[in-house]
Amino acid sequence: MKTFRLLDPTDPPSIPSGLCALAVMTKAPRAGQVKTRLVPPLTPDEAAELNKCFLRDTADEILRATAGNHASGVAVYTPIGTESAYDDILPGDFSLLPQRGVDFGERLYFAAEDLFRCGFDSVCLIDSDSPTVSAKTFLKAIELLKTHRDCIVLGPCDDGGYYLIGLKKPHRELFEQIDWSTKRVFDQTMCHAQELGLEVKLLPLGYDIDDAASLRRLCNELLGDNVRTDIAPNTRTFVRELIAQKKLASVF
What we know:
Low-confidence stretches: none
Largest sheet: 8 strands, mixed
Order of helices and strands: EEHEEHEHEEHEHH
Number of strands: 8
Distance between the termini: 39 Å
Radius of gyration: 18 Å
């Protein structure tokens, strides 16, 4: 059983100067609680297992990005009391931070605020639905935040959202008056950044997986003839098994 460091912003740990938090936002992967828009074609248990694969692949890429690059992996999780759910998902050198807040915007803002209070110099909040985002992209975010000027970094999704937001300061306005889970999220965030006078630096376009159409896209990408085998290997293995068992026949 792994023992993760549990971060407490009211009793900040000793964080090395200049460290960037690569923080994935996660809900404990329990059947019926995660990836519910993929049920069907998946069962609740299969959807939860897919979510675990997404987290493993994202955490592995974060770990590669942190190696020797003055960054640290964090899982910002909910609900409190589910820490053991991550024993077989996250690398042992990840830290855990409980989520606060009611709606999604509050949870993002409080995650950033708490990580800054813990002593991180910069923060990247990362979604748990984009397992094909590579360590190279996370490294680019770290590099873009190594500036003395206040700015934000955004990893846009082609559905109008974003898979990553990087911050030098916890600007609450970036998470308010946002129509979450709509195609307006990225544009509204850009408008708020402009109103705050913040420079915006962009990462490569990505996508998240939250419905049958995006799951089909993921399967086509991961199981194509020319895809690199190091992209989302845990997710690839699982969807290949589902297809072999004809569990994803309705997706294609």
